[in-house]
From TrEMBL:
Belongs to the thymidylate kinase family. Residues 11-197 form the Thymidylate kinase-like domain. It comes from Luteibacter rhizovicinus. One of its GO terms (biological process) is dTTP biosynthetic process. Phosphorylation of dTMP to form dTDP in both de novo and salvage pathways of dTTP synthesis. This is Thymidylate kinase.
Length: 213
């Protein structure tokens, strides 16, 4: 019997878009289809990546420059791809990842103004050709997302940025979704959690067709 490659599904979106909430719902949905997904996140997902996460989200590290932030995100990603994602996909596992390379284009590119061609160079080199099968972009007004995220407690180093920063991130995400309609699925994240899960389930439905039990 042929061993089939797993599937990589990434969730993207701004602060408070509902990515973590949707991930738990998707895990149950996939399990109902006989798939036990590997769940991971960025930055993080490995011991090295979680150490990087602690640095980049530390609100007291205001000195971290945009170039270092970009490189740290890719350091975490390079480790996650090699240690977790690529081996899982090769073993036929489905992977659900809370943010991936698109987040660098949105946050470090759109948000921080780092050049897109530099980010693309890092993607080619550090991510080694790992591209998501489907990317769910949870889109919602910045103010709605920020109001939700505010309920989570103290803001991290990125959450303290001004609204204009998050507007640029939203624009960059939407531009990437428009440029790659085959991979992206735009989700109306201002809907109720159940409605968001229903949209995501519909977006993933075509992938279930290829699964044999
Ligand atoms: N569709 C939704 N409608 C209303 N509130 C939501 C929705 N999805 C998530 N939330 C709430 O908003 C907050 C942020 O959600 P979360 O899933 O942590 O977002 P993210 O991981 O994208 O930052 C949480 O308190 C969560 O319960
Ligand atoms: Mg989250």
């Amino acid at each position: 019997m042929p061993i089939t490659r797993g599937r990589l599904i990434t969730l993207e979106g701004g602060e408070g878009a509902g990515k973590s909430t949707l991930l738990s719902g998707l895990r149950e949905l996939l399990r109902a289809h006989g798939i036990d997904p590997l769940m991971t996140r960025e930055p993080g997902g490995t011991p090295v990546g979680e150490a990087v996460r602690a640095v980049v989200l530390d609100a007291s590290r205001s000195e971290l420059c945009p170039e270092a932030e970009l490189l740290l995100m890719f350091a975490s990603r390079a480790q996650l791809v090699r240690e977790v994602i690529a081996p899982a996909l090769a073993a036929g596992r489905w992977v659900l990842c809370d943010r991936f390379t698109d987040a660098s284009y949105a946050y470090q590119g759109g948000g921080r103004g780092q050049p897109v061609d530099r980010i693309a160079e890092l993607e080619n080199w550090a991510v080694a050709g790992v591209v998501p099968d489907i990317t769910l972009l949870l889109d919602l007004p910045v103010s709605t997302g920020r109001a939700r995220a505010a309920g989570r407690g103290e803001a991290d180093r990125i959450e303290v940025e001004a609204d204009a920063f998050f507007e640029r991130i939203r624009d960059a995400y939407r531009a990437r979704a428009a440029a790659e309609p085959g991979r992206f699925r735009l989700i109306d994240a201002s809907a109720t959690p159940d409605a968001v899960l229903a949209q995501a389930g519909a977006a993933l439905a075509p992938l279930f067709g290829g699964v044999t039990s």
